[in-house]
Amino acid sequence: MTSSSSHLTLKEFCDSNYKGSETYDGLETVLYGIASGAKNLESQIRNGNLLGMLGATGDMNIQGEIVQQLDAISSDTFVQEFKDSKQVAMVGCEEIEHPVTFGDSDQHKFIVLMDPLDGSSNIDVAVSIGSIFGIWKREPSTPLNADLLLRPGAEQIGAVYVVYGSCTVLVIATEGTVNEFTMNPKDGEFYLTSANLKYPDKTPYYSVNDGNTAKWIDGIVEAVDQLREGRSQRYIGSLVADFHRNIIKGGVFLYTADTKNTVGRLRLMYEANPLGYVSVQAGGAVSNGIENILDIKPVELHQRVPLIIGNKMLVEQIIETVKKT
Ligand code: AHM
Ligand code: MG
Prior knowledge:
- The protein is of the alpha+beta class.
- The protein has helices spanning 10-17, 27-51, 69-85, 218-228, 239-249, 268-281, 312-324; strands at residues 56-60, 66-68, 88-93, 100-101, 110-118, 129-137, 158-164, 168-174, 177-184, 189-194, 205-207, 232-233, 251-255, 266-267, 285-287, 304-305, 307-310.
- It has two domains: 4-194, Fructose-1,6-Bisphosphatase, Chain A, domain 1 (2-Layer Sandwich); 205-324, D-Maltodextrin-Binding Protein, domain 2, CATH 3.40.190.80.
- It has an eight-stranded mixed β-sheet, with helices on both faces.
- Helix 2 runs antiparallel to helix 3 (69-85) and helix 4 crosses helix 7 (312-324).
């Protein structure tokens, strides 16, 4: 067994990869903020049942969904971390109607869009949940307005996600590389556990909510039938955890439009764009069935999108099957 001392710490990794780089300088402070927020949340999630922090707040969010106590706590936690970083100019958040603005100095050079707690329906039942972040650059002196956030996912300079599962992992993607860090619960530090992650060629898994079959168009019914051949279905119901399994073990996730979710269910800015960016850096793909999701020019902060994400060959196979059916 290797000890954590044989792994690079997040700080050592950031020092050698981001410090002093023209694009990424300052990003390390944003990443430390995410790591600190994740460590804090990890403990609240593990103890939530004992501390009376599970269950709903009684409020409804902008998405029309019931807000869980931990949704609100995670949103507040990361907003505070980004404010304290003094590097983030604005944050868009799945739980907050309007963007949160921190400062417009030249030092405030990053924009973050986040789903602070993905998989809300799994909070109360001890199943993996996570946090998702897309990171954009803000050029000096650019005015802070909503348009600064409504940019295609292809303009992200990085994306990060955390999975609070049987262990807590933090995955960071920047141009061409995806790196996984695991939290050591003894010291709360994140250590590099997988460098330069790429999807494996094998694709043992597909992830879809089968309960929606009757609502799908014929092309998706056919595409899922094809996926079933020789593969196991794995569906956690927390996108970030399903995505993490598929990137490591191989597979594809889809949540397309159906008669109930006519424009898709998942959020372009908080879920599809950041995970889409990670997927592409790992050699995979992301599509709404028609185009690369990262090329979509967003019109609205909270917009939803059909999502097909994972192994490139499988994403293409699904699109082809839908076209032909
Ligand atoms: P959330 O961000 O409020 O948790 O909602 C998004 C979640 C995804 O994590 C998951 O893939 C999907 O909703 C599950 O939806 P369904 O219960 O319809 O299968
Ligand atoms: Mg979510």
